[in-house]
Design brief:
The chain has 291 residues and is of the alpha/beta class. It is 38% helix and 24% strand. Strand 6, helix 8 and strand 7 form a beta-alpha-beta unit. It starts with a strand and ends in an 11-residue tail after the last helix.
């Protein structure tokens, strides 16, 4: 048995759910009924065949995200998450660049790397080199003034942890941001890159090995193995090309407000809702959320 979950950023009504059932029937997905997770916000349609279900529903309803998956492994025991533009609202390196007066130059490289147009490691080296000489104190100022948690981030992590799940933040960004962000949200662990700092100033280097796509995949697989969690019970979420490997390997890979290459490859995409959509994807109603 499979489920197609409809998650509305605003509201969804029974008429739209019925239309969804009809669309799934026409696609050969054998719908057998439906039920609310939260009335007017999120609903499950039960289907016998998953092939074609996502295509039948995506884009059919304004402001509604679609998740199709097996009902058996719906509840997840491990979450691996990206940080920049996923768990927080900004790209930290772009904000550091703003303090250096070169944000447009660095942001353009960031965007190209996240689209998959540039090699991540080379693009990171190039951007950090441009920050050489920036005062170390700017990092803490940037964290305090610019870094904001993504809506729903803390509720997502706290709710999953209350249900016994593990959560790891794996970032291609920097430990000076990832460590405090992970603590604020409630992650069990953070893994990120280390900026080179000499004499209180950034020296334009990043310590090796660089945390990139392979590291994110490795953390998913190694953490699942260490905790004896079946891969089907894992969840990965991110927005950029360096998240593709972990999203592809997870039991449920979510592209969150993501670049097109990621949205196309993921099991599901969240374009309209905040991160609490990942709780609805697991069938968890708001009365059970930890806020």
């Amino acid at each position: 048995m499979f489920i197609a979950t409809l998650i509305a950023a605003g509201t969804i009504d029974q008429g739209q759910i019925s239309e969804g059932v009809d669309r799934l029937a026409a696609a050969g997905c054998a719908p057998s009924g439906w039920g609310w997770i939260d009335a007017g916000r999120a609903a499950d349609i039960f289907i016998g065949v998953s092939t074609g279900a996502r295509a039948a529903l995506e884009g059919a309803f304004t402001g509604v995200d679609i998740v199709v998956q097996s009902i058996i492994t719906r509840s997840k025991c491990l979450l691996i998450a990206d940080m920049d533009s996923t768990m927080i609202t900004v790209e930290c390196i772009d904000e550091l660049a703003d303090f250096a007066g070169i944000k447009p130059q660095i942001a353009a490289i960031t965007e190209a790397a996240m689209r998959g147009d540039l090699d991540f490691e080379g693009a990171l080296d190039a951007r950090v080199a441009l920050l050489a000489g920036l005062d170390e104190g700017v990092i803490d100022r940037c964290l305090a003034e610019r870094v904001r948690l993504m809506p729903g981030a803390r509720t997502l992590i706290q709710t999953m942890k209350a249900r016994g799940a593990a959560a790891v933040l794996v970032s291609g960004g920097f430990t000076r941001f990832a460590d405090p962000v992970a603590a604020m949200i409630g992650f069990d662990r953070a893994v990120a890159n280390r900026l080179g700092i000499v004499g209180g100033k950034l020296d334009g280097t990043v310590a090796r090995p660089i945390v990139g796509a392979q590291t994110k995949l490795d953390m998913l697989l190694e953490t699942a193995k260490a905790k004896s969690i079946p891969i089907e019970s894992t969840l990965a979420v991110g927005d950029g090309a360096n998240d593709l490997l972990m999203i592809g390997a997870a039991g449920l890979g979510i592209a969150y407000h993501a670049k097109p290459v990621v949205a196309a490859a993921a099991d599901a995409r969240v374009d309209h809702n905040d991160l609490t959509a990942l709780l609805y994807a697991q069938g968890i109603p708001t009365r059970e959320w930890v806020r």
